[in-house]
Amino acid sequence: MDSAGYVTLTRQSGLMREMQEVANNIANISTTGFRREGVIFAEHVVAVPEGPSLSMASASARNIDLRQGDLSETGGAFDFAIRGEGFFLVEDAAGQHLTRAGSFTPGPTGELLTADGARLLDEGGAPVVVPPGADVMLAQDGTLSAAGVPVARLGLWQPVDATKLRHLSGTVFDAGEVEPAAPGAVLLQGHLEDSNVTPVSEVARMIAVQRAYELGQGFLDREDQRMRGVIETLGR
User: How confident is the model at residue 55 (pLDDT cuts 50, 70, 90)?
Assistant: First the structure.
């Protein structure tokens, strides 16, 4: 295969990866706290001796869209939403992670847990515990009260280096080192943040990626026919 074929193959590989990301976004349109993802294409230019340079593309980096999603009112006492920047900090057996999905459930000992069993942490990094059966109220500054008595203050966190934010699974992110989020965000009780995926935009993006992939495949098919023709001619 010549250089044109290799260049096209790297492009096709990147487009396939992007199509997978688009499909995942569409599948999570209704997932609470989900963040839209895409891929970043990078161009690598290599000097070729006694010839023009060779340019090849790769799409290995993932881009996480952190724009605010719409807020839906649920009325749930343990449904919390962030309006503004920042993440909830949760902890499981693998360590501490960030999430925007604010649906929690009290565990047997009163710890607030995610659907996957991760513990919600307060602004000091300790598990948030509420007395069983008590009426819970959350103030916009994150103060959590049970029966009128403050029991914890939820913290909002952000990655120290935003470029290290990495999607693990579902709505959970690994950020390496974290720090308190910048002031300005508020917490709302009885609300959840929707996915920030826009269906129309994702479908349009899917069509554009599919057409680009088909064009590349058409070029590879024509290139294959050309090479076969050359081999058949030389073999006579």
Answer: low
